[in-house]
Amino acid sequence: MVIKKEETISIKIYRVNISVILTIMLTCNEKPKDILLMTYVVALTGGIGSGKSTVADAFANLGVPLIDADVIARQVVQLGTDALSQIVTRYGNNILLADGSLNRAVLRQKIFSEQQEREWLNSLLHPLIQQETQRRITATKEPYLIWVIPLLIENNLFSQADRVLLVDVDKEIQLTRITSRDNITRQQAKQILSAQTTQKERLACADDVINNNGNFVELSSMVSILHQQYLDFLLLPNLTKKF
Ligand SMILES: CC(C)(COP(=O)(O)OP(=O)(O)OC[C@H]1O[C@@H](n2cnc3c(N)ncnc32)[C@H](O)[C@@H]1O)[C@@H](O)C(=O)NCCC(=O)NCCS
Ligand SMILES: Nc1ncnc2c1ncn2[C@@H]1O[C@H](COP(=O)(O)OP(=O)(O)OP(=O)(O)O)[C@@H](O)[C@H]1O
């Protein structure tokens, strides 16, 4: 089920901006794509294995641009990057695979078993990920984009989003999906969950919630409904309309 919460302050600000833009458009006789410089940012968040990538793929199939923090996190530690050198300096060559790339499974084990190591890695990578994210948001021209950001709440990144879409899933289903996808034990999966915020906290921050306890078909139809709602809101602005 897709749940929508009451209109938020950030939405109100954005809608005022949209109305200003439309006024300028009418005055200048410009086309929307020439004037509509701001892309509406929908932050897609949720716990590990909740289904963020699956939801993001469904939006992408509808033509919505994606910016995925997990993908950027991989790019900033590619071969030859300064971040990868710093990781090797801290952990030694054992943190690399035979081809010189990062051994993600080993690093995952380290950072989710020791908080200090997680904080160190976060302080190295998060500024780099944020910088690249901002660059991509600014470069996007479509009416809205999906920003896949697992740690939106943990890192207090709300000011960079216009709306928060949560993928919510019951913990038991989540544990089953993570352990079968990542080939890790329940204990390891629980360790990762305990490094993330709670379901209650996530629900309190969300504007829209997709419940992913069901199957892929149900998930995809919820995405289609939300996509239509976002487009209706953005392309036919009506200041009396609730969103
Ligand atoms: C530790 C790493 C190498 C493990 O890689 P792996 O391929 O196994 O996992 P992947 O990158 O796909 O992340 C899977 C999920 O783990 C969770 N996760 C990853 N890093 C963190 C973290 N620092 N704190 C809490 N949860 C995290 C997120 O839910 C994420 O979606 C990797 O997660 C990483 O580089 N993490 C630090 C960067 C980061 O914080 N990424 C999260 C998005 S900003
Ligand atoms: N509705 C569903 N029914 C069955 N399996 C699902 C469903 N949604 C997602 N999955 C599976 O659950 C696993 C986790 O989904 P996905 O990778 O999309 O989550 P994620 O939130 O992006 O994970 P991560 O936080 O690790 O990046 C995947 O193997 C995916 O195929």
TrEMBL record:
**Pathway where it operates:** Cofactor biosynthesis; coenzyme A biosynthesis; CoA from (R)-pantothenate: step 5/5
Source organism's superkingdom? Bacteria
Q: Which PROSITE patterns match?
A: DPCK (PS51219)
InterPro entries xref list: Depp_CoAkinase, P-loop_NTPase
Pfam families given in the database record: CoaE
Q: What is this protein called?
A: Dephospho-CoA kinase
Kindly state which keywords UniProt assigns to this record, in alphabetical order. Answer: ATP-binding, Coenzyme A biosynthesis, Cytoplasm, Kinase, Nucleotide-binding, Transferase
Listed GO CC annotations: cytoplasm
Catalysed reaction per UniProt?
3'-dephospho-CoA + ATP = ADP + CoA + H(+)
Q: Origin organism of this chain?
A: Candidatus Regiella insecticola LSR1
GO biological process annotation, one example: coenzyme A biosynthetic process
What is the role of this chain? Catalyzes the phosphorylation of the 3'-hydroxyl group of dephosphocoenzyme A to form coenzyme A.
Classification via HAMAP family = Dephospho_CoA_kinase
Task: Tell me the compartments it is located in.
Answer: Cytoplasm
Name of the top EC class for this enzyme: transferase
GO MF, any single term: dephospho-CoA kinase activity
Tell me which residues bind ATP. 49-54
Q: What EC identifiers does the entry list?
A: 2.7.1.24
UniProt lists the family membership as follows:
Belongs to the CoaE family.
